[in-house]
Design a protein that fits this description.
- It is a single chain.
- The chain is α/β, with parallel strands linked by helices.
- It has two domains: about 220 residues, Zn peptidases (Aminopeptidase, 3-Layer(aba) Sandwich); about 130 residues, Glucose Oxidase, domain 1, CATH 3.50.30.
- It contains ten helices and 13 strands.
- Strands 1, 2, 3, 4, 5, 6, 7, 8, 9, 10, 11, 12 and 13 form a 13-stranded mixed beta sheet that branches.
- Helix 1 crosses helix 5, helix 1 crosses helix 10 and helix 5 packs across helix 10.
- The longest helix has 21 residues.
- The radius of gyration is 22 Å and the shape is elongated.
- The model has no long low-confidence stretch (mean pLDDT about 95).
Length: about 375
C-alpha cells in the first residue's frame, strides 16, 4: 500500500461525497444535466486536492420513451406508474391480464396466453428471458412487478419481440388483487426512441503526467434512483483515494478517472481505453475499479487472477477478508475494457444490494466505514 496514505483515509469525508452526488444532485443518467453537474463536482474536488483534472467528452446514444399502463376493467385505473424496460421496443397492447409467476416457461398456462398481457415477478431470470418466454407463449406485452418495495428500472440484454415495462411491488400486488376477483383488462404502451447526447470522463493525471496505474469509478446512475451505492459510493472512494495519495505524496504514476455513461454499456471506460496511445496502454501496469462499495455483507474481488490473488492475500493486514468471485451472469464493470485491452484490472465491489437500480438506492443506506475500507483496498491494490 502506498506508504502513509492509508492512515489519511476518512469514511465520513467520503460519505460527504455520496451525499453531494446522490442527494444534492440526485439521479445522474448519462448525458443529462445532472451527470454534467456531477462531473463538475468531481473535478472541483480533485482540483482542491492539487490535481489539474480535465474532461474527456464523447457522444452517446440513449433511449427516451413515453410509457403508459392503465386498467380498463373491471374498473378504470390510470394511476399505475410504469417504466419501459431499457431497450424495450415501441408498441401498444390491450388485452386480458394473466399472472405468470416469475416468467419461466412452465409458469404460463399450457394453452398459452395468445393476445394477453403477462404479469410476472422480478427475480431469478434475466428480464430478457422473462420477456422471451412470454412472447413464446403468445403474450403481446409484459409487465414485471418488483419483488421488493418501490419501483425499479430493468434492462433487456437482448432485443425483444414485444414491449415490456416495470412497476412497483405495490402496483403489482394491486393488479394481483384485481385478478383474484376476476378478469382484468389492461392497456400498455411504449413509445421508445434513440437520441444523441454528450457524456464525459473526468481525468486527473499524476503530478508527472504518467499513467502507470488507474483508479476508476463510474459516476452516472440509472434514471430510476439517486444512485447512492451505484455508484456514488465508488466515486467517493475514488475521491478519497485521490486525496490520500495527494497528501501522502504517493501519487506518482497513478491516474484517477471518473467514467461517464457506464450504465449505457461501459461507454466511458471504453472511450478512455480507446483514446490511449499504444505507448500509454503498454505503460499501464494495472487498473482498480470501484463499483457499489457502500452496502452489503461481503467484500468481493473480480478481474485479473494475479491481481485478485495479490490483493486477497494482503487484505488480512487491513483486518478484511475479501472473497475472490466471479461476477453474476449479465453483470460486468469498467475494468472489463482494460482487461480486454491487455491491462490487468481488478473490481472491488459489494453487489449484494437489494436496492440496486431502484429509487431506494439512497444515502442513508450507505455505510461510511465501508467507504473507508474500499479506499484502503484500492490503495492496497496500487501496490508499494
Amino acid at each position: 500500500m502506498p506508504g502513509g496514505s492509508a492512515s489519511l483515509v476518512s469514511g465520513d469525508r467520503a460519505y460527504g461525497h455520496v451525499v453531494a452526488l446522490a442527494q444534492d444532485i440526485g439521479s445522474r443518467p448519462a448525458a443529462s444535466d445532472a451527470e454534467a453537474a456531477a462531473a463538475d463536482y468531481i473535478a472541483d474536488q480533485l482540483t482542491s486536492y492539487g490535481y489539474q483534472p480535465y474532461f474527456q467528452p464523447f457522444e452517446v446514444e440513449y433511449s427516451v420513451e413515453q410509457t403508459g399502463l392503465d386498467v380498463l376493467s373491471p374498473e378504470a385505473i390510470t394511476t399505475l406508474e410504469a417504466r419501459a424496460l431499457r431497450s424495450s421496443p415501441s408498441g401498444e397492447a390491450t388485452g386480458q391480464l394473466v399472472a405468470a409467476g416469475i416468467g419461466r416457461p412452465e409458469d404460463f398456462p399450457t394453452e398459452g396466453v395468445t393476445g394477453q398481457v403477462a404479469l410476472v415477478e422480478r427475480g431469478e431470470l434475466d428480464f430478457s428471458d422473462k420477456v422471451a418466454n412470454a412472447a413464446a407463449a403468445g403474450a403481446t406485452a409484459v409487465i414485471v412487478y418488483n419483488n421488493q418495495e418501490g419501483p425499479f428500472r430493468g434492462d433487456l440484454q437482448e432485443e425483444s419481440a414485444i414491449p415490456g415495462v416495470s412497476i412497483s411491488q405495490e402496483d403489482g400486488q394491486r393488479l394481483l388483487d384485481l385478478l383474484a376477483l376476476g378478469p382484468v383488462t389492461v392497456r400498455l404502451s411504449v413509445e421508445a426512441g434513440l437520441v444523441q447526447g454528450t457524456s464525459q470522463n473526468v481525468i486527473a493525471r499524476s503530478p508527472d503526467g504518467r499513467c502507470e496505474e488507474v483508479v476508476g469509478a463510474h459516476y452516472d446512475s440509472v434514471e430510476a434512483g439517486p444512485g447512492a451505492n451505484d455508484n456514488a459510493s465508488g466515486v467517493s472512494a475514488l475521491l478519497e483515494t485521490a486525496r490520500a495519495l495527494a497528501i501522502g505524496g504517493d501519487g506518482e504514476g497513478v491516474c484517477l478517472v471518473a467514467f461517464g455513461a457506464e450504465e449505457l454499456g461501459l461507454v466511458g471506460s471504453q472511450r478512455f481505453v480507446a483514446n490511449l496511445s499504444l505507448d500509454e496502454r503498454q505503460a499501464l501496469r494495472g487498473m482498480v475499479n470501484l463499483d457499489m462499495v457502500g452496502v452489503g455483507g461481503q467484500w468481493r474481488l473480480a478481474g485479473s487472477e494475479d491481481l485478485v490473488e495479490e490483493v486477497d492475500g494482503e487484505a488480512a493486514d487491513l483486518g478484511l477478508d475479501p472473497v475472490p468471485a466471479e461476477l453474476p451472469a449479465g453483470l460486468t464493470g469498467d475494468h472489463a475494457n482494460f482487461i480486454g485491452a491487455g491491462v490487468p484490472a481488478i473490481l472491488i465491489y459489494r453487489f449484494d444490494d437489494p436496492r440496486y437500480h431502484s429509487a431506494e438506492d439512497q444515502v442513508q443506506f450507505v455505510e461510511p466505514r465501508l467507504l473507508a475500507q474500499a479506499t484502503e483496498l484500492a490503495l492496497l491494490a496500487l501496490g508499494p
